[in-house]
Amino acid sequence: MTETTAANGTPCAIVTGATSGIGAAIASALAAEGYALLLVGRREAAGQAMADKFRAQGVEAAFHAADLSDTTAPEAVVQAANAAFGRVDVLINNAGILIQGTAEDTTDADWNRVMDINLNSVFRLSRAVLPALRAQGGGAIVNIASDWALVGAKGALAYAVSKAAVAQLTRCMALDHAHEGIRVNAVCPGDTDTPMLAAGLTGAARAQRVAEYGAAIPMGRIGTPEDIAGVAAFLVSDAARYMTGTLIPVDGGASAD
Ligand code: NAD
């Protein structure tokens, strides 16, 4: 069931980082729930092909190319959604990057790049979308954080700090906008089988990493993008109408260990 019934068209969801991994799975899950999709990503050809595929399935979809580290990009994303669908009901802040390193091997440039994409763009896009959500009488923002927002991480300082800040942004925005019917929640994935996790590995080396990481997880395997997407779709649905400010680990039990 969708968050908002269409008064002036199909409810619309913006999904960032939609062309791969978890973002692509979330786009499919929301399409199945009847949302029109504004797919946001950097890769024009992949994004347009994805929008074409959804349209061929009867799903209203458009692609908007954006580098979210550009400070002007978030306003343009919301304008694109309004232009394509005339409304916005849901924002999924999914785009992110991982640069590994302890304090000593994280350069200022690495630190700033991670913060620009993982944190600052989430702030700017969430701020930019509020008027459009308010115009619908409410809506839902889901931030894709990480279980490293909840527990410490070794060798991924900037990334883990950025995700912990997203967790706090989630709680604070939830409190600031609860009275407007705008719900803000976060999904905190553990290791998930996406290009980010494989980091350039292919074939046997990739399979070995997936197996090694899976063996360390209580449920005995790493997550699939669909494992994460199902929880994101739940959070925007009417079933989660009384939930805001929550951080939900989806990690096969890893953060409970
Ligand atoms: P991914 O690399 O497949 O997806 C990340 C997406 O973000 C890509 O589509 C990429 O193009 C996009 N992106 C990166 N920088 C961008 C920029 N400047 N502008 C616009 N788009 C940009 O990896 P994923 O695992 O699907 O990651 C999705 C989210 O899940 C990320 O926020 C990531 O931190 C989080 N996450 C992933 C894991 C995991 O193990 N894979 C675990 C916890 C959290």
UniProtKB/TrEMBL annotation:
Residues 11-213 form the Ketoreductase domain. SUPFAM superfamilies: NAD(P)-binding Rossmann-fold domains (SSF51735). GO terms for biological process: monocarboxylic acid metabolic process. SMART domains: PKS_KR. It comes from the Bacteria. The keyword Secreted does not apply. InterPro entries: KR_dom, NAD(P)-bd_dom_sf, Sc_DH/Rdtase_CS, SDR, SDR_fam. One of its GO terms (molecular function) is glucose 1-dehydrogenase [NAD(P)+] activity. The keyword Signal does not apply. Pfam families: adh_short_C2. Its EC number is 1.1.1.47. Keywords: Oxidoreductase. Belongs to the short-chain dehydrogenases/reductases (SDR) family. This is Glucose 1-dehydrogenase.
